[in-house]
Amino acid sequence: MVGGGQLARMTHEAGIPLGIKFKLLSDTPQDSAAQVVSEVVVGDYRDLDTLRAFARGCDVITFDHEHVPTEHLRALEADGIPVRPGPDALVHAQDKGVMRAKLTEIGAPCPRHRIVEDPADVAAFAEETGGFPVVLKTVRGGYDGKGVWVVRSEADAAEPFRAGVAVLAEEKVDFVRELAANIVRSPHGQAVAYPVVESIQVDGVCDTVIAPAPELGERLAGEAQQLALRIASELGVVGHLAVELFETRDGRVLVNELAMRPHNSGHWTQDGAITSQFANHVRAVLDLPLGDPRPRATWTVMSNVLGGDFPDMYQAYLHCMARDPQLKIHMYGKDVKPGRKVGHVNTYGDDLADVRERARHAADYLRGTITE
Amino acid sequence: MVGGGQLARMTHEAGIPLGIKFKLLSDTPQDSAAQVVSEVVVGDYRDLDTLRAFARGCDVITFDHEHVPTEHLRALEADGIPVRPGPDALVHAQDKGVMRAKLTEIGAPCPRHRIVEDPADVAAFAEETGGFPVVLKTVRGGYDGKGVWVVRSEADAAEPFRAGVAVLAEEKVDFVRELAANIVRSPHGQAVAYPVVESIQVDGVCDTVIAPAPELGERLAGEAQQLALRIASELGVVGHLAVELFETRDGRVLVNELAMRPHNSGHWTQDGAITSQFANHVRAVLDLPLGDPRPRATWTVMSNVLGGDFPDMYQAYLHCMARDPQLKIHMYGKDVKPGRKVGHVNTYGDDLADVRERARHAADYLRGTITE
């Protein structure tokens, strides 16, 4: 696996029971996954020679993030190393311009969008689509609200162009809430769909995920799952695909983002589904039959733990574990920095209000924003 | 953790979500746990200097097995390293003579027993307890049927004395079945009890565990749990304690063996309980509040996978995963040798016959004793 973040950490955890040999390419020996994996190569994934040396002897390569240059992935494939997801799929999660063009081509519902050249062009796009605000995104390199701007005027629109990366303009969708349709697809074409979840963002960062999305009609849930399955098939995705969606006021779903790897909106599956997204990602990448994606509880809630005031989590563990013996804590071994995702908690049960409160309390306590 | 077997492997897996730093002392770099842990020291646990060097910088030491010499554990404690379970507790899992003496002292029900000196003394013991057969055990070093003999005559009784280790004689109990009462206890005295399970042995090796034990009356289940809690408290156990029991024909339980570490009879908890034995062992050893031990399913069945004809498990995975998408496979990364425990499977559901059949089929298929 390329990339030493928490997704690699949790993928390794999920791979241990299968007895597979897991090798990691990590930026540093301190990265989240590097702390818990036996075979770690420290190196730069942007360097093709490093990637090639790492890949030697691997049966298959997969990823913790989407940042490996597409041309390097093509080079690995040319060397005969299976890359899953492959570059032709992954480019759609790497480049938002390519993603929007392809989704439009296959008729997947998207916000109105086009590549814009400069602030004047943004104003023209606003004119075409009903006015400001407009969402601007650099086509490459963004995540967790980085590389995304909501601009309210032409004068406001200069910043995104400074990076020298192409900029995509999208209408600001009047959405009721955000959903995610997560599926896993294997090379031989088997696919499983997890229940559609609601994803609640705070300051552009995922805060809480509720599985399944409350009061989501069967029709729309089915549509969202079918949409994700169709995107995976049309784009040739192998592994976990997260399709982040807007639920519009008029009862439609529009594709917001794609991620081709385990995803924050699927962390609830570790404790809430029969097979976790991580286990199914491993199975897909190895072309093994996929595990049952159905939920094990009526409701599962995931809340992210952001870095706060506790450099040492031990005291917080004492409180949280004693208060809620059913609580599931997942920490990433990261240095605590304010605002950084350092872990998440999962709770489950039959009473949604209770399940949400337990996750909220634990996440806030572990961050240090509450003390009782 | 001292010892690189599958228990350490699964303990590491369970510790990853807590963000703890896990260090392993392993006999070889190829041991089951050494394959998946980042920080591995290769060395001999029988050597005190090796143990001392390993323990330096550890907040606490725990074990994959009971074989570390008791006097070495006392030396580590004298060095100021917390050892959990400590030597005063662990000696009861190391030395069956000490265990029987202590259990008798606290009034825990045991088969009739005494240390025997030679075959003539075995015959005398048989005389006292109703005749042959008699069970002979070396007081140290046995596991999985090794170090245990069922002898039918004085002439039969020579073998156990050849090792030069003290020999314990026990009456051969006329039991209905074997049970296990598993509990976890923390240094501050909190304890949780898992449901009592039925353990089915084949050729002296655990084959299948059913949780909870079918048709076990509430009274006897409660007695078994109370007995395990009392033993843990009286012996000062910290961490997971497995109390292996005989259920007698007249409706009592007798203590067969003690294990003070995660145990084969608790593997079902990985997929069948809210908190696994491994997670609770870690929490106990770190003196954190314990997790909820209750089951998540009506029935959970664990069946061990013994080494068989498949050196490579991939083809078997294809069949087993496709046949049963809910199957949970746990392999240990061990070289497959005939008869060696190389993994286990867990299944769960509402219909015990179905749950058992699925576990049986998968274990047999993975071993290679069936091919469809």
Q: What is the structure about, briefly put?
A:
The structure is a homodimer of 372-residue chains. In chain A, 30% of the residues lie in helices and 24% in strands.
Question: What does it look like?
Answer:
- Two copies of one chain form a homodimer.
- Chain A is of the alpha+beta class and about 375 residues long.
- The first copy, chain A, has three domains: about 5-85, Rossmann fold; about 110-170, Dna Ligase, domain 1 (2-Layer Sandwich); about 175-365, D-amino Acid Aminotransferase, Chain A, domain 1, CATH 3.30.470.
- Chain A has eleven helices and 15 strands.
- In chain A, helix 3 runs antiparallel to helix 4.
- The longest helix of chain A has 18 residues, at about 220-235.
- The model of chain A has no long low-confidence stretch (mean pLDDT about 95).
- The interface between A and B is large, with 41 and 41 residues.
- Chains A, B: Homodimer.
- Chains A, B: Pathway: Purine metabolism; IMP biosynthesis via de novo pathway; 5-amino-1-(5-phospho-D-ribosyl)imidazole-4-carboxylate from 5-amino-1-(5-phospho-D-ribosyl)imidazole (N5-CAIR route): step 1/2.
- Chains A, B: Its EC number is 6.3.4.18.
- Chains A, B: Keywords: ATP-binding, Ligase, Nucleotide-binding, Purine biosynthesis.
